[in-house]
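Worked Example 4.2. Consider the chain below.
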Amino acid sequence: MNIPTGTKSLPKLTSALLAAALLVSGLPMTAYAGDTWPFKGDSAPGANQPNVHGYTSSHIANWSPQTDPDAELLRSRVPLQERIAPFAATQANPALSPQTRMMNVAGDYGNAFIENAPYTNKFAQYHFNFWQYIDYYSYWHGTATAYTPPEYYDELAQKDWQQKWFEFGMLNIPNPTYTDAAHKNGVMSLAGIFFSNNDRGQQTYQQMIVRDEQGNFPVAEKLIEMAQYFGFDGYFINQEEMSPNVAVADIPDYIAFMKALQKGGLYVQWYDSLNTQTGANTFARTLNDSNISMLVDKSTKEPVSNSFFFDYGAGNTQITGANNYLANLNSSLGTSYSLYDVGYAGLEAGRDRFKPVNGSALAAKLDAASLPRLSLATLGADFVHAGLDEDMGLSYPVSHRSENDYQWMTHLREQLWWSGPNVNPKNTAKPAANTVSDVYADNRYWPGISSVIAERSVIKDNNFYTNFNTGHGLSYYVNGAVSSNEEWSNMSLQDIPVTWQWWQETTGNRLTVDFDYGPGYNLSGTERYKYKQLGGFNGGSSLVVNGNLNAENFLRLYKTELSLKAGSKLSISYNKPSAANSSSMSVGIILADDPNTVVKVPVPDSGRKTSGWVTKELDLSAYAGRTAAAFGLVFNPGQGVVNNYQMNIGQIRITDGTAVKPAAPAGLTIAKAFRDTNEMVVEWKLDPDYNKVKQYNVYVNDVYMGGKYDEVFYLKRLPAKSGRLKVVAVGADGREGDAATLNFNLNAAVSNLKVNSQADGKFDVSWSNTGSTAGGVTVRVQSVNWITTAEPVQQQMVVPAGSTSAEFTGMPVNGDDYIVTVTAGPADPVSVSGHFIDTIAEPYAEAWSWNQDILNLPMPNTRDWRYLYVYEDGVAKSFATTYSSGNKPMIVRGRTTKASLSFRSTANVVYVVMEDYAGNRSEPVYLKGSH
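Applying the procedure from the previous section yields the following structure tokens:
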């Protein structure tokens, strides 16, 4: 059974082609960090919550958004933003060259295996906050394929990584909200393709590089289509199969496959793990004749990949060799390759963390001036969150990393990794004594990424705003007041991060700088932060500065290229809970034509204690015609010392008045309302001009529900069953435009909506009438993500007013998805989703073959299978499993080794039986002999 693309020819074609692929084995690219476990309680997934899932090669070959669960809710629509020109004068370290680039291969949010939601009501997740130091972000962790039953993610699977008995896709697409955040910051978002011995079960590269009858690569074509639809930029390809190795005869097709991705306009980074002369899984850690063909086809000069991720042992010898090889290559081909463009030396962030070995590994990639000799890459830098419990010496069932009270630790650990040992990119000198043991880190050995990578920025043109949102919160604030008390995570809402965390220029005390998430954020476990917790202004957090102010302190915030005009103004919203005093706050601006001078624009009356949030507007017209290359805030104590000084900054907006107030979004509608689970999906028409509209905010009864730059949004928990839905666009200056509104009343709709799908094809729908019974009741049944029936199911009937049930016949019994919508008279439609009863297991239908007494069994191409039994003369054959977990009397989806699908058999009678997730077994298919 195939997963169709909506056409009738491609599924049959790809099934036959994929059937030709044999299986090999390998070892994974490894990072070490804490496992990810299902959320519980209020943060548990909603019944209809969208989640990212993985894909096998057959899933990709047959992909279409119409048959891919949640596809429309997993898109990034934010275009990749252009970064400003480098300007060394405003860098923390002017000696760093912008040609040194950075690749970050890490996790997104952290709950990646089954419940990788784009946004949800869970604060304690990983939220990457240092986009300014990277150029590419790739997702490598792997994700369970669609329809993997969540109950497989059981206690055993949580205790032991090697006991996850389900299938990970070889393709891991980016979480769309992470792509949103990446694109806001000019960072490319790359999907991960990963083949290894253990982690991908029966999947192998050979299934991916199959050609069709025209010589094209169906999987490559679909990978291009998927990237365009979901909105990401390319692929990080990690090929680590071994024993048997990649077949040398397959390498020309592998190269041609990579070329196809290049011609599709995608960025491709190749993990340098393949010797193209032998097919072995080896790591050159340099460029040579045994791997260069995965970068460029020397015979045609065509690019094969854009760059290499060199394995972690790359040091001075290997880097010198790579430079020499490139020089000779450029001379012979007439090309102009630079090692900074094509060579990324890897660091094992997730394994080595803050240990001396990691500091030494970085030093080995630097020249005599401590500058990188090529670009850099890390694997697993999300250990700052995911590895917290391990670093604390704790294991299952402890999961402090998923608890709100420990997020101050993960925030500080991330700052140590990126900003350096002093949480100050201007001072990355390593101290003699460890001062961060309270967050289970060590700052004596790791100088921070900021010591080797120059900061970047996208802040340009005439308008900019920030609410200092980090992508999550314990509440959501609108204009300084709590709009929602729900905790939340949504990287689409993350503002452009503060460029320097934290660069302060002072002759006195360094102030404490932090993100303030409000009084619900428990900081009682640390003495590092002693400020009064106020929360955010617009969003989940504000910037807080506190401490003993005994000298002027310039806190640099953002690297920019903002053109100042006669109409330019800066608006700042702040809250000063500390006592009135002689202190003052100014905006400090660095002008491009005089980068050594801080121009101070005072904020009037900023020494006074406020009784809440105050907004002041500053006139910047005196600097018209000049360019702001950076800006920050200057805190001055005035006379004497100001003890216990605190200032919260909620919003900064710089605008010249040209930002257009967005119109009310057109086409607002409720796409689906799930009354019984309090969920809803809303849609509107997207304004395609990102220069005018930066995001859409969704409210119910003026309670903030979330937001995204998109045209569809999922609401996990409605605050009320009736009221007013509001969607409003946010303009380039951070101000909301006019609102589109829509009234709804689910109290008048039917409730207790239930479905009984039966084995005889009967499909009973029942409900309770909770509102008016006037008018007939329309009941509609539609199949969703249709893949197995000849046509999508779409049936509708109208039953008399006051009815409480309807019966359909001839419905599928194959486990496909459905959505049932019931509309009682003039009331709002309400829906329930589920699966048709599953009584069928499809027989094995792949193109098996014999080569004398060697049986080749291509991996099943059906969506719904769990086991494949092979009977030899009536006895079930045993097969080895990955992670050396013992033999099993069946092939287990995702866990049996690749080699098990090609084996010797001298039996007289051989037949196979499929079993699906529901426990159904298929009719036998005889491969040798007969019944």
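The chain has a mean pLDDT of 93. The CA atoms of residues 131 and 801 lie 57 Å apart. Compare this with Example 4.1 before moving on.
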